[in-house]
Each structure stands twice: as structure tokens, then as C-alpha cells.
Write a structure and sequence with these properties.
- Helix content is 37%, strand content 17%.
- It is built from 17 helices and 13 strands.
């Protein structure tokens, strides 16, 4: 294949998470001319997208002029499930189109989409979701936690750290007190502390500075472009951040990360693709509403954000929060502890898509629940969504898969697999 185009119109972090896919494509088709279409807002991403042709588009103008590539492509890969991305994919002529909403959309993309309403059942990082759109098509299954080869040179990262002062949703952000605790801890040890963020996050920086007046507390919010941000990240010993593009950039440039996930941010899906990270998330047994929806109003006082970082600095256990371990299996990044039901789906994914069968280890409570739902499944009309939603939980992704893809092959295999393994 000589001409390959990727559509990636979402956020900066998603662009960084596309890099392993780009590496996979270059491995299989080293001579191909590779293009990536991104939102013009992130045009500075050419800093790290230096081995592909970057095409920037204004999303507001795409409706009036969707055709931005005029020559025929050998392969088009759409990584976004939005209407605007699907329309763009439809407007580009290509011999083969794979990914979300394409003529040759696969069982893989339909199955991944079927978890959107039950996210806690999904354990696949976005990096691996992107990669396997391509890898399953071209039998290139190789997993590595090495996102890139950037920053192999030695850089002195001593005596400075950075704090990302915001996120696009307040439910994802650290509390001001957490920012203060981090800054005071490092300033007391003679570190320089950089406050990172966009202009609209400078209010958080001002609140921090009201509590801390120190010449080594350096406010860069609203004052940096992407290259400036990368320079700061590369020279820091540690980055403290919610689920943001800054987190993914830190992974890209091999800077250690401490990340707190809260609100709609779910680390099993969007954690930075690196092992060099300490990550905390709310305990789902305690915070029943986590993870929530992005646009859903919080009725619980944002309590899932209140991780005590003083305990973290003193190596004490943080009650109500889980510290996750990062490792990699055959299909990508896996975090532990993992929800038992999500683990069963992951084992099924390995079995169905990758011909890799492992024994499922389920406790009796898990087995009882799945057996109950399997009995209901036998009596259920799969087309009656209302009844299904009232009676099923673990098996609901199969219902949504049926809505997206009326081929029953995967569904039948899944039911057979669950019956045989529990």
C-alpha cells in the first residue's frame, strides 16, 4: 500500500495515543506515504508527528467542504465514532476503509462501541483499540509498552516538577487543596514547581498562589504553546495531572507521572500508555456513580476527587481510592486490580479475536450472577431492549452489539464461551 490516511479529529491526548498505531503501520508498510487528519486547534502536534504528513482541518468548516483529500487512497482508517468523522471518511475515496462508521467496519469496532453504556466492563486502553483496528486486519499482533523512541538522550530532570492545573471538565480536576499540598511538599524540598494549563485554567493557578507566595512557584498557565509545554515536561522529575493531554505528552517524553482519575475519566480506557506512572482512581465499591458521564451533573459534591495526597507523600494507604498497577498482556495495557466482569470480557476478547484461550478465574458471586443472566437470556427476545435493560447487566454489551451489527456470530460465540467458562 502506497497511500494511507488516518482520521483523528479528537483531542491532543488521542493524537498522542495514535502514535503506536502509526508505528504499526510503518512496520507493515514501510514505504507507504502516511497522512493524518487532525483538528487545526492541535496543529502544533507536528512537533511529534514528524514522520507523517499532517493535514489540519477546521471542524466548523468540514460540513461545507468535507472533501479535503482528492487523490484516491489505498487505505483509510477512521479512529473516531463521531458523525463529523464518519462523514469525512465517507467523502474520501479509498480502496479499503476500516474503523468506525466505514463500509468495511469490523466486528472489532462494533464490539468496542457496544461497551459505551457499560464502560466498567471495558478494560481496553484507547491505544489498543486504535491499534487493533489495523492489526486485526493485517495480522500484525505485537504489543509493547514503548510508545515511541522520543527522548532517548539524557536530560537533567532534577529538582523540578510540574502540576497540570485543570482539565476540560471540573469533575476530572484535582481540588485546589491537592494542588497546594503537592506544591508545598516539593517547595519545602527546594524544588521548582511549574503550574501548567490553558488560559481558562489560570484561575486555579491564582487560587494556588493566594496560598503560596514563593519565587520557585512558576505560573505558566495560558503562557505556553505546545513546544513550550514539551520543554517544561522534558525537564521535570514528575508530572502531577488528571486525565489530560499533558499526561499523554509526559508519557511520550518519558517523564514519570502521578495521575488521579475521577468523574468521567476512566483509567482502563485512557491512561497514558506507559509503565512509568502512579495512578489512583476512586474505589467503585464505595463510589457507585464512578465513572460518570461527561455531561452528567454531579450530585455528590465531587467526592470522588478527594484523594489525600499527604498520605501519598507519606507512603500511607489512601482509603476510598485504589492504586492501580500497570502491565501488558498479549492485547495491550492491563491495569490491576480489574473488575471481575471486565476480566471475563477481556479473556473472551483474547479467545474470539486473537485465538488465545485462558482459564477464567471467577469467584462464586460472579458465577452466580452470570449464570442468572444466561438463564434470562434463554427466555429473552433480543429485540426487546427495554426488557433486556431491566434484567441484564453483564450481558448488555451483547444486546448493543446486536443493534450495531445484526450478525449473531460473535454473540453466539460469547454466550457459548460464558457458559463453558463459569
Amino acid at each position: 500500500m502506497k497511500h494511507i490516511t488516518i482520521i483523528q479529529l479528537t483531542r491532543l491526548g488521542d493524537i498522542v495515543q495514535t502514535l503506536p498505531l502509526i508505528n504499526d503501520i510503518k512496520t507493515v508498510f514501510p514505504e507507504a506515504h502516511l497522512k493524518i487528519i487532525i483538528n487545526v486547534v492541535f496543529e502544533d502536534a507536528t512537533t511529534f508527528l514528524n514522520e507523517v504528513e499532517v493535514i489540519t482541518v477546521s471542524l466548523s468548516l468540514l460540513d461545507s467542504n468535507p472533501k479535503i483529500i482528492h487523490n484516491k487512497q489505498d487505505l483509510l482508517i477512521n479512529l473516531n465514532n463521531s458523525t463529523i468523522s464518519k462523514n469525512l471518511a465517507h467523502s474520501i475515496e479509498a480502496d479499503m476503509k476500516i474503523g468506525f462508521g466505514t463500509e468495511q467496519s469490523s466486528e472489532w469496532t462494533s464490539f468496542i462501541t457496544s461497551f459505551l453504556k457499560h464502560r466498567y466492563l471495558n478494560s481496553l486502553n484507547l491505544v489498543d483499540i486504535f491499534r487493533h483496528i489495523f492489526n486485526l486486519k493485517f495480522n500484525n499482533i505485537k504489543v509493547s509498552n514503548d510508545n515511541n523512541k522520543i527522548n532517548d538522550c539524557k536530560i537533567d530532570k532534577s529538582q523540578q516538577i510540574a502540576i497540570q492545573c485543570g482539565a476540560r471538565n471540573i469533575k476530572r480536576q484535582f481540588t485546589i487543596q491537592q494542588y497546594i499540598d503537592i506544591a508545598e511538599f516539593y517547595l519545602s524540598r527546594n524544588y521548582s514547581v511549574y503550574l501548567l494549563g490553558l488560559q481558562n485554567e489560570s484561575n486555579n493557578a491564582e487560587l494556588i498562589k493566594k496560598h503560596i507566595n514563593h519565587n520557585r512557584l512558576i505560573d505558566t498557565t495560558g503562557k505556553t504553546n505546545l513546544n513550550d509545554l514539551i520543554d517544561i515536561i522534558q525537564n521535570c522529575e514528575q508530572i502531577y495531572t488528571p486525565d489530560t493531554g499533558t499526561m499523554h505528552l509526559a508519557a511520550l517524553y518519558k517523564t514519570p507521572i502521578t495521575a488521579l482519575f475521577s468523574g468521567p475519566a476512566f483509567p482502563y480506557e485512557t491512561l497514558a500508555y506507559t509503565s512509568n506512572i502512579t495512578v489512583f482512581m476512586p474505589d467503585t465499591d464505595i463510589f457507585k456513580c464512578y465513572p460518570c458521564k461527561e455531561d452528567e451533573k454531579c450530585l455528590n459534591g465531587f467526592e470522588c476527587r478527594f484523594l489525600d495526597l499527604k498520605n501519598h507523600f507519606q507512603n500511607e494507604i489512601n482509603q476510598n481510592f485504589v492504586k492501580l498497577n500497570v502491565s501488558y498482556d498479549r492485547i495491550g495495557q492491563i491495569l490491576t486490580p480489574i473488575n471481575d466482569y471486565a476480566l471475563i470480557y477481556r479473556i473472551f476478547i483474547k479467545y474470539y479475536f486473537f485465538n488465545d484461550l485462558q482459564d477464567s478465574i471467577c469467584n462464586s458471586k460472579v458465577k452466580d450472577k452470570i449464570q442468572r443472566e444466561l438463564k434470562i437470556w434463554n427466555r429473552l427476545n433480543i429485540n426487546n431492549l427495554d426488557i433486556a435493560e431491566k434484567n441484564l447487566e453483564f450481558l448488555m454489551p451483547l444486546i448493543y452489539y446486536y443493534i450495531l451489527n445484526s450478525d449473531n456470530t460473535l454473540i453466539d460465540k460469547a454466550i457459548e464461551f460464558f457458559r463453558s467458562t463459569i
